[in-house]
Structure formats: C-alpha cells, structure tokens
Amino acid sequence: MKTIDDDMRLIVENSRLSFVATVCSDGSPNLSPKGSMRVYDDEHIAFMDIASPNTVGNLERDPRIEINSIDFLRRRGYRFKGTAEFREPGDPVYEWLHAWLLDLNGPGYPAIRAILVHVERALPILSPAYTFGGADEGDLRQAWARTYLADLEEE
C-alpha cells in the first residue's frame, strides 16, 4: 500500500516551498524552508542539501523529520513524518534530484547531497475555512489568488 498518494504528490509539487522540522541537540525544534522538495516514489520524499548545515547536523544525530507542504492557494497540505538518510553524488536519488534542480535553476547551482525521507505517516493539513466554513477549494483558490495578486500590485 502506498503512503504517498496522487493528491499528496500534487500538493508537494504545487507548494514550491516546504518546511522541514528536525530536533536540535538541546531538544528544541529547528524549522527550515526547502525549495527542492520532490516526491521520489510512493514511500519517499527527497530534497537537496543546498545550504542546510543545521538541518544536516540535526539529521546526522537524529534522523527523525517532519515535512509540511502547503499549497497556499488551496489552503491545504500534508504533514509527512519519517526518517531521513543521506544520498551522495553518484547515488540515483541524488542524480535524479540534481538533474531537476539544474533544469530549474541553471548550471552551477549548488547541491551537496540529497536527503531521502522514508515517509512513515502522512496526515492532511486543512484550513479552518474547510472545517468550519464549508469552503469550496475552487472558490478558496480564486479568492487567495486575487489576494496575492492585489498585494503584488500594491508593491
């Protein structure tokens, strides 16, 4: 049975920015934005270590991780909990993600190592607009798109 379904894949791809939570050595949380998040297969998500010394240090000590991917226009997303492992240059996961990163950002973009997360649990994240307001996803998407566009026009 797959852990990551088609809707989860869509959200990760559309979110453009996900957030990774790890545990610091003193037990406090570390939260870090990641723009390289991709679904690798039905049980794994991967992202690139581009400039992530705190995230990497925390994962070297404790591989537990949580990833939050939110499609801000749809006002919903997913929380993925699992364990991380490092994949170095030459590994198929690294090469797959690195090729995507270079296509997106151009040659020379830094990529130290890939981090592959085995997703053990995935839970939905929903705006209260769905839970309490009976919102329609299409209507929410249009309303938030207008809001963000209006903000850009004011700048």
From TrEMBL:
<feature type="domain" description="Pyridoxamine 5'-phosphate oxidase N-terminal">
    <location>
        <begin position="5"/>
        <end position="121"/>
    </location>
</feature>
<dbReference type="InterPro" id="IPR012349">
    <property type="entry name" value="Split_barrel_FMN-bd"/>
</dbReference>
<protein>
    <submittedName>
        <fullName>Sugar ABC transporter substrate-binding protein</fullName>
    </submittedName>
</protein>
<dbReference type="Pfam" id="PF01243">
    <property type="entry name" value="PNPOx_N"/>
</dbReference>
<dbReference type="InterPro" id="IPR011576">
    <property type="entry name" value="Pyridox_Oxase_N"/>
</dbReference>
